[in-house]
Structure formats: C-alpha cells, structure tokens
Amino acid sequence: MSDSDTRDRSDTLRTPIVAVLGHVDHGKTSLLDKVRGSAVSEGEAGAITQHIGATAVPLDTISGIAGSLVDPDDFDLPGLLFIDTPGHHSFSTLRSRGGALADIAVLVVDVNDGFQPQTEEAIDILKRTGTPFIVAANKIDTTPGWNPQEGEPIQVTYEAQSDRARSRLDENLYEIIGQLSDAGFSADLYWRVQDFQANVGVVPVSAMTGEGVPDLLTVLMGLSQRYMKDQMTIDVEGPGAGTVLEVKEEKGFGTTLDVVIYDGTLREGDEIVVGGLHEPIVTEVRALLQPKPLAEIRTEKRFDRVDSVGAAAGVKIAAPDLEDAMAGAPVRVVRGRERDVVVADVESELAEIEVDTEEEG
Ligand code: GDP
Description:
Layout: E1 11-13, E2 17-22, H1 28-41, E3 49-51, E4 54-58, H2 59-66, E5 79-83, H3 88-93, E6 95-96, E7 99-100, E8 104-110, H4 117-129, E9 133-138, H5 154-159, H6 163-182, E10 187-189, E11 200-204, H7 213-227, H8 229-232, E12 233-235, E13 241-250, E14 254-263, E15 265-267, E16 271-274, E17 281-284, E18 287-291, E19 303-306, E20 308-310, E21 313-318, E22 330-333, H9 339-352
Parallel strand pairs: 2-5, 2-8, 8-9, 9-11, 10-11
Antiparallel strand pairs: 1-12, 3-4, 4-5, 6-7, 13-14, 13-22, 14-21, 15-20, 16-17, 16-22, 18-19, 18-21
Bound molecules: guanosine-5'-diphosphate.
The site of guanosine-5'-diphosphate has 15 residues, from helix 1.
C-alpha cells in the first residue's frame, strides 16, 4: 500500500476495449471465434460474457488459456473486451472523446498474403487515430509441412516444426515485418520487442488450430497493463459515456442502439443525450438489453433486461425518439449535470466526426 492513497472512492480499472481489423478473409471472424471458443472450453461458467456487439474475456479465463504465459497476480486490469469487428468504415467513426473507441487493436494479416489493400487502409486508420496495435500473423498452420500443436503457445509450436517449415514461416513473417516498416512502423516478432510503444509486435497465430492464441492474449493484456492503466482508471459510478455501434430496429422495442460504454455507468431511467442526424437527441432509457445466454437462444425472447451497465461493456438501449441516431455518435448520461452542457458536449463531439454515409453496418 502506498503512503498516500489518494484515489477517489469509486475509481475502478475498467476493461480495455480491443478492436480486430484486417483485410477480408484474413481471419478476423475466425480469430474472435477461436478466442471465444478457447474461453468456453476453459470450462467454468462465466468464462466469457457475450455483450451486445462485444465479448468480454475475464483475466482468469485469459490466464487459463495462456497457461504459464500469464500469472494473474501480475495484472489488475479485469480482462479484455473485444468489439465484434464492425469493419473499417465503422471503425474509423468509432470515437470516444476525440480518440479511438478501441484502446488497442489487433491487425490480422494472412501470413501467406501479407499486406493487402484493406490492411493498408486499416494501418492508415490506426495511424490517424493513434491507436496502439499488434499484428496477428494468421494462418501459420497453412505453412507447407506444418505440424499443428492445438492451442499451444508459439514457442512450443516452433519447437515441434521441421527446420524447413520453420524457415518457410520465418520468411513470411519477415516479409510482413518489412511491410510494416514500409508503412512507417518499426516492427519485430513480439518476443524480441522490448518497448511496445516504439515497436509493433508481430504474433504468429492460427485461428484454426489456436496456436499462438495464448501469446496474442498475453501480449494484449501485458500492453494494456503496462501502458494504459491511467487511461483505464475511471469513476465507475459516474455518468455513463459511450459510442453507438449500430442503430437497429428490434421487434417490440422499436429503434434501438447498440452501444459500447467506455466510461461510468448507464442505468435504466437515465436521461441521455445521443448524437443525431440533425441535432442531439435527448431521451430517457426505457430498457437496457443484453443477449440471452447461448443455451436459451431458441426461446422467444432474445434479450435479458439489466438495470445498469458499467464500463467497459456493450449494451442495447431501448428508448423513444432514436430514429435519427447515428452509428459512431456519442451517447452521454446527463445525471447530476446541466442538460444543456451535455448537449453542447455531444454537439462539439459530433462536429469532429465525419459522418460516414456509406455505413453499411
Ligand atoms: P474475415 O473476413 O477476416 O473475418 O475472415 P474469416 O474469419 O471469415 O476467414 C476467412 C477464411 O479463412 C475462412 O474460410 C476461414 O476458415 C479461413 N481461416 C481463418 N483463419 C484461418 C487459419 O488460421 N488457418 C486456416 N487454415 N484457415 C483460416
């Protein structure tokens, strides 16, 4: 315990928000599925929580997947919240108070294909938003002569390969490192990186066999813990702040918002201000909805109601007058503040966001 414990009472470390980007077919969806699948096969109920638009993987689960790579005692961040890949267009509009909504990103690159047009686009967006990222060099299992080691850390996998397979993979990895360097990023295989603020770490993975997934989670957790603790310190009791992922019609609820909350708490009945097409929308939260657990998905009702959600989390908001809400727009809880001040806040933030009219969701 430090000599001066000056933290506010309700200061809490929130979950870092992780986005997965990359060229089509390079394996974004598969990688997220693998992370979810590995978490589920870790066993305990509650190993992951499916949110609206996001998946929460708690530290214990990460340490279960990562084995000896992660000692949970070394961490005090609660885990990782993966946004369910909304695509580049949405990513570039997903801001939080001027920065990127995602605290950290995984750029997925097919180890055989290397950089492709959407990889370049993603890199530009990451540069522009100043989002720290690592590269998942995916599909290592497709290396000729590969001897797959299901779910193992990369070092274990490497040792199981023939010299020939290993050097084939190395060639491809160095190609990607070269392409990162051409794009202006000093990069190296992650275990050679000392300073992740100066260098991009490349993590060889397979979304198919799960090889390298322990390393990927370890590096994400380590980076967040090391460089983002200040950013993750929030007053969880404070008025909620979030970003709209999607505006959706939902049977029985009308127009709803899928939102990622990155600060404070959002409660049922809260007055909120949401960025709209013409002007900020002022409304009241009628219901907060989360997906029902997988086992119950066949039942009529798709959602569970919750009283409140604290950052970081994905949630669906049902409220009146949301028809003009926009993906990428800010959502703010008014609670305890002047409504006009919050409206002005949302207005100025909206002014910074280039509205992406081609948003396909
Ligand atoms: P996305 O468009 O980036 O989301 O890519 P997907 O996750 O849909 O993957 C595209 C294709 O590549 C699918 O057929 C996947 O099964 C396949 N794929 C993805 N990751 C891997 C991998 O690590 N190994 C192999 N062999 N195939 C993969």
